[in-house]
Amino acid sequence: MADKIRVLLTEEEVDRRINEVAEEINRDYAGKAIHLICILKGGVFFTCELAKRLKVPVSMDFMSVSSYGAGTVSSGVVRIIKDLDEPLEGKDVLIVEDIIDSGRTLSYLIEVLKQRNPASIRLCTLLDKPERRVKKQVKVDYTCFAIPDEFVVGYGLDYDQKYRNLPYIGVVELDEENSTGKEAVR
Ligand code: IMP
Ligand code: MG
Hints:
The chain is of the alpha/beta class. The chain has one domain: Rossmann fold, CATH 3.40.50. It contains three helices and ten strands, in the order E-H-E-H-E-E-E-H-E-E-E-E-E. The protein has helices spanning about 10-30, 45-50, 105-115; strands at about 5-10, 35-40, 60-70, 80, 90-100, 120-130, 140-145, 150-155, 170-175, 185. The strands form two sheets. Strands 2, 3, 4, 5, 6, 7 and 10 form a seven-stranded mixed β-sheet that branches. A three-stranded antiparallel β-sheet has the order 1-9-8. Strand 2 (about 35-40), helix 2 (about 45-50) and strand 3 form a beta-alpha-beta unit. Helix 1 crosses helix 2 (about 45-50). The two termini are about 25 Å apart. The relative contact order is 0.22. Inosinic acid binds near residues 42, 102, 105, 151 and 157.
């Protein structure tokens, strides 16, 4: 049976909000260049949409990480599956994520990336679930939407590698037996 997906944010709502956030970023980075770091795989749709709206010079790099999802014991340590191609020395780095949940992934990643001596490092996320935060020290500089504690898909976000391609954000109405946590590769 196909999963039921309830629309949380329409394509138009997401589009409009990305325009606003891009404008804010354009203002903040006026006169500078941005080195965008896309966190694969979930961040890829948002990164592209955001990048298209940026008017300052942009370079892009990609990183893939994994950590333990809900239902498994997390050490808070994240594995780097694919590292960046370029050094960060002296660059104004903007990390682009699909969603910040516990904050474990980003808190670890920011520490790792800081050691590579960027000029600055900021964080931009499409979605934030503030209620779920464990790592309170993670500072999110740009958030498109704060959402309730529900499992969402679409716009890059997956459930079991499905639904990344949906052009909107939806909530999966999960079968009880399929909702146990496991290691997810983003
Ligand atoms: P954190 O380390 O707990 O902040 O984990 C964030 C990562 O968990 C995100 O980058 C997503 O890959 C994944 N994640 C968290 N919540 C959701 C969700 O509602 N849908 C899909 N993936 C999610
Ligand atoms: Mg992710």
